[in-house]
Amino acid sequence: MAPKKRTPTLGPEKLPKPEQKDEDPINSILFTLCRQDEFKKAEDKLRSFPVPEGVNAREPTFGWTLMHYAAHSGMPAFVNTVLEKNGRIDVVCEQGNNMVSIAARGGHAEAIELLISRKAEIDCRNKEHGFTPLIWAGSYGHVKATESLLEASADFHAVDYQGRSAVMWAARHGHLDMVNFFLRRYPDLSQRDHEGLTALDHAREHLELRAAMVMAEELKRRMLDASQRDDYDEVSLALENSCHPDVKDEFGWTPLCWAAMNDSVELARLLVRHGASPELLGENSELGRQLAAKHRSVGNVLWAQRRWSRQLVNSAAYEGTEGAEAIMIGTHVDRVLQHACACVVSYPIFAEV
């Protein structure tokens, strides 16, 4: 029997090469660079690619896309590059955070403003805690990011699944500058979470912060009492100490309401000059509703008489610059104060009512 011929073994150089699969540049290169915080290199690498099909691919851990990493980097140039490559701005990660939430958590105000300008959702809640971008920024104490969100009309009163707002989380973590920022704009600390706790309660472990909040509450009470008594000097002192001019008492009345009730032109002018909102005196205000219940009118019964309106506007005109412009003023005090507020920063008014 003839022996079988042995097939010679092919050397490594003669073996057929396996089929090479195209490497996904998004998953293998860009995500790796982003995980290493090499965002500038990732941006440069992304620019060198044509429009990649996988620009909206997700990494496996948290479900982040390149846009999430761009928001996390806080680099507007990186965000713009991803957008130019058709990156989606409406994608949320596995935890339910969108791009604005990621940027807010990192305190990246410029990235927040850019994302919002591209119509990113500003009050998106995540799945686990119900945090909005504002709550993220407040809980980490990012004042600039918080300011950017509020200027874009983020919901200050939004709460998470425990009923806690941004100011509550800022107080809970002891962010003094953050809480002071909130107090200058939204001085009402009476809101309670699902456990019945206020922001002051959440600050119990931070003595300096708690003292500042107690002082703010005391300043608010003193200004409201002084407004009710028509005490110009006391109100002026409270305003100089950064008390908000639109603080409200338990009935929803502001110092400007009391100035109108007391027919106090000087006090009204002081409050308007410090930013008090004339809209709080309108027919739909709390004051207007209470007066309506007593069959009284905001416009022409209680304190919007022709004499008072003329006196208020003429008094406010002293704050104007040179030049004159005639404006017809109606009898409603809210309209009078709107024009008075405008004249403080723009021009004198000669009113005819």
Compact overview of the structure:
It holds the Pfam family Ank_2. With 353 residues, this protein is mainly alpha-helical.
Question: What would your notes on this structure say?
Answer:
By secondary structure, the protein is mainly α. It folds into 2 domains: 27-186, Serine Threonine Protein Phosphatase 5, Tetratricopeptide repeat, CATH 1.25.40; 248-353, no CATH class. It has 18 helices and 2 strands. It has helices spanning 25-35, 39-48, 66-73, 76-84, 99-106, 109-117, 133-140, 143-151, 166-172, 176-185, 199-202, 207-229, 232-240, 255-261, 265-273, 286-293, 306-317, 333-345, and strands at 325-328, 349-352. A two-stranded parallel sheet has the order 1-2. The longest helix is centred in the middle third of the chain and has 23 residues, at 207-229. Mean pLDDT is 75; it is low at 6-23 and 296-353.
Break the fold down into its secondary structure elements and pairings:
Blueprint: H1 25-35, H2 39-48, H3 66-73, H4 76-84, H5 99-106, H6 109-117, H7 133-140, H8 143-151, H9 166-172, H10 176-185, H11 199-202, H12 207-229, H13 232-240, H14 255-261, H15 265-273, H16 286-293, H17 306-317, E1 325-328, H18 333-345, E2 349-352
Helix pairs in contact: 1-2, 2-4, 3-4, 3-5, 5-6, 5-7, 6-8, 7-8, 7-9, 10-12, 12-13, 12-14, 13-15, 14-15, 15-17, 15-18, 17-18
Pfam families: Ank_2
Keywords: ANK repeat, Repeat
Protein name: Ankyrin repeat protein
Question: Which tags fit this structure?
Answer:
disordered C terminus, Serine Threonine Protein Phosphatase 5, Tetratricopeptide repeat, 353 residues, two-stranded parallel ribbon, 2 strands, 2% strand
